[in-house]
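step 3/5: co-fold with cytidine-5'-diphosphate
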Amino acid sequence: MINKINVAIDGPAGAGKSTVAKMVADQLSLLYIDTGAMYRTLAYAALENNVNVNDGDALKHLLDQLTIKLVNENSGTKVLLNDRDVSNEIRTAEVNKHVPVVASHEAVRLEMVERQRMLASEGNAILDGRDIGTHVLPDAEVKIFLNASVDVRAQRRHEEQVKKGLPSNLDELKKEIAKRDKLDSTREVAPLCKAVGATEVDTTSFTIPEVVDTIINLVKKPVS
Ligand code: CDP
Ligand code: CDP
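step 4/5: write tokens
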């Protein structure tokens, strides 16, 4: 790959964004940036410090005191909050519930987008989130909107929890995912939507390697 390339992957919860983005990054030697982990870390820090998640200014003030580092490892992204490993803590039901509210504030998003652009400027990068193709990197060479039915997405998350030996309730998961999707898609600032020029990939009946291949073919196309 000769030219600088950015890949933007957006879509709802459980569509497979982080799994396939990490695999595409590994195969094409791209820097992988999990932007959802950044919003999750702020939500976690807000809960830990009793900061009101409805108060955008207070959240921005908190964010200004936080360093959030994403360290890519074979098993996934390790997340460091002021150098403390919070990789597991940011994936709890409590964080799932509050993160869309935290992410709805303009002051928070402006700062996050700036940090994400700075990270992406370090090289060829693949970012996944909700507003990558629409706001963070609107000029990304490749934009993908990954989707799947809510039933399949909830089932995937359920299996993931069971595999980790964690308690899981499929109906609760389905409700949580549907609620989060609605909040993310209807917020005023940078709502989740398919970016202009994005290719929609429905992963409902695709395996992970099939989705990875589809994306790699889309990435190779514009630069071949
Ligand atoms: O992995 P999952 O799809 O469940 O979520 P995530 O990518 O970790 O993102 C968690 C939450 O952060 C989302 O539900 C959004 O509320 C927010 N988010 C966002 O607003 N913009 C982004 N670029 C990424 C995440
Ligand atoms: O990042 P996002 O919330 O979009 O989804 P993910 O965390 O990458 O994927 C959720 C779960 O679905 C993971 O356990 C993946 O292994 C699984 N998955 C799948 O079974 N089939 C796919 N085509 C994509 C993901």
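step 5/5: annotate
DSSP finds nine helices and eight strands in the chain.
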